[in-house]
């Protein structure tokens, strides 16, 4: 299987490592608009060669689209224009409604599978890639009825090699749910980091006092703005609803603290402890 990977950062690079080591890909061809990323991917052995978006369909059986979601929407029509009947494209982006609308309008829609492997770290670039990033994580396949059976079969085989659990849902369901369980947590982390940096001007005290709880909560604030700004823009409707609820709940916590309602605050936190039940299955 010859695999083309467009986008050679954490996700694309980690795909390359695992798919090669686990025998899914016999050859990997990479594309990245950043020459430094391309050079690093070659140097690290993530890919066998580098080409352009236009050239990638000349040789590959499968294209994995692992670029920021705004770039994916621009690249997909170009790929679908040139794709052969036995070639397939799988998108890895964190928003699905926008790219699915673009795919739906193209006559070669059935050669495309919309997916989202829910895996990652706060780090970016080819050097951040590692074997096992996707192991035991969940991946979502969206609007599967719009893809060819062969395309779906290959997509599920890919995720089997990556040791991921596959769930299926519509693109709109995906974007609504992911706003709460992924996108909102990133905004929370960014805002926490912003708040601390604005208030604590003496950085020495931050480093001296910050414990593991702060470090784990603010970890996502180190994530790439190039990746996350387009995600927030593309999922703004669902994310706005999620933020509205979150802000209301923050205000409730503040009101109880301001008014000294210790027992009510205790009871509220006890109710929220039920999140243990939800997280136990992850």
Number of discrete domains: 2
The rounded Rg comes to: 21 Å
Order of strands side by side in the largest beta sheet? 3-2-1-4-5-6-7-8
The total beta strand count reads: 8
CATH superfamily of the largest domain: NAD(P)-binding Rossmann-like Domain
- Stretches where pLDDT is under 50 for at least 5 consecutive residues are none
Q: What share of the residues does DSSP label as strand, in percent?
A: 5-15%
Q: The biggest beta sheet, please?
A: 8 strands, mixed
Please tell me the overall pLDDT. 91
Helix-strand string: EHEHEEHEHEEHEHHHHHHH
Spell out the blueprint of helices and strands.
Layout: E1 2-6, H1 10-21, E2 27-31, H2 35-43, E3 49-50, E4 62-65, H3 69-82, E5 88-91, H4 97-104, E6 112-118, E7 138-142, H5 149-161, E8 165-169, H6 171-199, H7 203-209, H8 212-218, H9 225-234, H10 236-258, H11 262-272, H12 275-280
Parallel strand pairs: 1-2, 1-4, 2-3, 4-5, 5-6, 7-8
Antiparallel strand pairs: 6-7
Features:
single chain; about 280 residues; alpha/beta; Rossmann fold; 6-phosphogluconate dehydrogenase C-terminal fold; 2 domains; 12 helices; globular
Report what the structure shows.
An 8-stranded mixed sheet has the order 3-2-1-4-5-6-7-8, sandwiched between helices. The radius of gyration is 21 Å and the shape is globular. The chain contains 12 helices and 8 strands. It has 2 domains: 2-170, NAD(P)-binding Rossmann-like Domain (Rossmann fold, 3-Layer(aba) Sandwich), CATH 3.40.50; 174-280, 6-phosphogluconate dehydrogenase C-terminal like domain (6-phosphogluconate dehydrogenase C-terminal fold, Orthogonal Bundle). It is an alpha/beta fold. It has helices at residues 10-21, 35-43, 69-82, 97-104, 149-161, 171-199, 203-209, 212-218, 225-234, 236-258, 262-272, 275-280, and strands spanning 2-6, 27-31, 49-50, 62-65, 88-91, 112-118, 138-142, 165-169. Helix 3 packs parallel to helix 4 and helix 6 (171-199) crosses helix 10. The mean pLDDT is 91. The protein is 53% helix and 13% strand. Helix 5 (149-161) links the parallel strand 7 (138-142) and strand 8.
């Amino acid at each position: 299987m010859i695999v083309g990977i467009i986008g050679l950062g954490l996700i694309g690079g980690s795909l390359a490592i695992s798919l090669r080591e686990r025998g899914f890909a016999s050859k990997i061809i990479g594309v990245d608009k950043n020459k430094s990323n391309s050079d690093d991917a070659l140097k690290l052995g993530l890919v066998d060669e580098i080409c352009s978006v236009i050239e990638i369909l000349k040789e590959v059986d499968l294209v994995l689209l692992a670029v920021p979601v705004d770039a994916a929407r621009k690249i997909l029509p170009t790929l679908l224009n040139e794709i052969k009947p036995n070639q397939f494209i799988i998108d890895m982006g964190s928003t699905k409604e926008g790219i699915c609308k673009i795919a739906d309008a193209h006559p070669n829609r059935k050669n495309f599978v919309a997916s989202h492997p829910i895996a990652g770290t706060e780090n970016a670039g080819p050097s951040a890639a590692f074997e096992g990033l996707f192991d035991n994580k969940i991946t979502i396949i969206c609007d599967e009825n719009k893809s060819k059976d062969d395309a779906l079969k290959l997509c599920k085989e890919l995720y089997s090699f990556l040791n991921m659990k596959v769930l299926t849902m519509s693109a709109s369901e995906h974007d609504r749910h992911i706003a709460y369980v992924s996108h909102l947590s990133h905004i929370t982390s960014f805002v926490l980091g912003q708040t601390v940096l604005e208030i604590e001007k003496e950085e020495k005290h931050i480093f001296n006092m910050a414990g593991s709880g702060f470090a784990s909560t603010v970890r996502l604030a180190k994530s790439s703005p190039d990746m996350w700004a387009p995600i927030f823009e593309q999922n703004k409707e669902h994310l706005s609803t999620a933020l509205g609820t979150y802000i209301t709940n923050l205000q409730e916590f503040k009101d109880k603290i301001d008014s000294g309602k210790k027992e009510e605050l205790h009871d509220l936190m006890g109710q929220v402890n039920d999140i243990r039940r939800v997280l136990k299955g992850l």
